[in-house]
Amino acid sequence: MTDFDCTPQVDLEFMNAEHRKAFDDANEIKRLLEIAKSDLKGVEKSIDRRLDRLLADTLNHFFLEEKYMEEYQFPARARHQQAHQQFMETMKVEYNHWQSEHNLAAAMRLERYVDKDFPEWLVNHIVTMDTVTASYIARHGGGAL
Ligand SMILES: [Fe+2]
Ligand SMILES: [Fe+2]
Predict the structure, then answer these.
(1) Which residue ranges form the domains of the chain, and what is each CATH number?
(2) Closest ligand, as measured to the CA of 18
(3) What's the whole-model pTM score?
(4) pLDDT by residue (tens digit) across 76-97?
(5) 104 CA distance to ligand 1 centroid (A)?
(6) What whole-number distance in Å separates Cα of residue 21 and Cα of residue 29?
């Protein structure tokens, strides 16, 4: 489990709020997947709902960052946007795999994703691209975002 409070904060509050949501979504799915090991039927609808939320929250998170990168003309916005896009492709593969299988093996695969791949990518992305982006926007008049 990745604790949001242990990850470095960036200079824009809206981004910190989006990151907290992402870790909360992933941790909640992980909690449900733990229950799935003994009662898959009992939690599969809840997993579906939370996974939909993780996807929607991530799309919104990236949309907001990209909107402000454009508005404040952040110089490396194309590369940052490309990193988001690649990450979304992987997430959609994991999402579709779970939706088409809905069995224990798929639950275990999803657990690896929300417990490892997702938080690892996110932490790395926050301490690199997001940190630089937030600092740039904050210094160019967007400090209150
Ligand atoms: Fe972000
Ligand atoms: Fe980002």
Answers:
(1) 10-142 (1.20.120.50)
(2) 1
(3) 0.94
(4) 999 999 999 999 999 999 999 9
(5) 31
(6) 12
